[in-house]
Fold this sequence. Notes:
By secondary structure, the chain is of the alpha/beta class. The protein has one domain (about 1-315): TIM Barrel (Alpha-Beta Barrel). It has helices at about 35-45, 75-90, 145-165, 180-185, 200, 205-215, 240-250, 275-280, 295-300, 310-315, 320-325, and strands at about 5-10, 10-15, 20, 50-55, 95-100, 115, 125-130, 130-135, 140, 170-175, 220-225, 255-260, 285-290, 305-310.
Amino acid sequence: MKLFEPLQLGSLTIPNRMLMAPLTRIRAGMEHLPNALMAEYYAQRASAGLIISECTMILPNTSAFIAEPGIYSAEQVEAWKQVTAAVHAKGGKIFLQIWHAGRAAHPNMCDGQQPISASALAIEGDTHTPQGKANYVIPRAVQVEEIQSLVKAFADAARKAIQAGFDGVEVHGANGYLIDQFLRDGSNKRTDNYGGSVENRSRFLFEVLTAVAAEIGSERVGLRLSLLNSYNSMIDSDPAGLASFLGERLNEFKLAYVHMMRSDFFGIQQGDVLTPMRAAYQGVIISNMGYSAEEAEQAIADRQVDAVAFGTGFLANPDLPERIRTGAVWNAPNPHTFYTPGPEGYTDYPFLG
């Protein structure tokens, strides 16, 4: 099977093309510290060609999920070492997804601080906070003179990730978080050099990638994009055109991979962003969202993509590659324990046999 062929990601050779997609599981506590339970969880899934960690905060007071991990302190770096050591002991590879929530952060989780975004536009609806459900707030538009400090925070986080033992990082440019808020014209209404044209809206992303690559080497850097996803009140007037533009320009960065979310969580926005990305981008493309083993195999065989990232498949099946190899039945995921504390629905999914 094509899924079991090795693949070169920058300087890293992975043993198969079944990647574990980044999955927010909020088991790090309100201290945002990785722990032994998280180490067990990731190590259980070390047979993935590559594990991409859950979204990880690059700065304090940017929390969107109450109990997600961070990578901005020395204590967090030390805590992550138990995770990377556990994965490597099982022969696995792991990238850290580095992330700024932007307007998806909430003051109830951020010492009362107003969130930031490309523009002063709030996400519709509410979110869970330690004080209960609360409406998203109107963010403060990032000032131009602040942008380089944000770029530096991504680079610093990448350096700390390597210090913590990660094999690389994935820059989170998807799902309506800060980089995505700059990229798409539904959330970016700026009139300066970071808004308006697709070139300007992409400037922040390119500056982040340049700084992160300078810090750890571009061969250790991946990028996740979700140009169709409407999650977090996101939309763009021309997602296929954005995919073509980004694909062409991203060739300059010599990244380990580009990780494309092929569709919309909610099915609201339709379209094809994989085909224009494949036509424009000469590097490795990983696709994600709703693949069966059979569809993933065919997509790789047809050269639509180079690898597929499985989310809930790996969440519920720590031995997913073996289940695919043998044609075994997959465990069903339990959505009621996706975001609850403790091992239930986290480390207790059964292995084959």
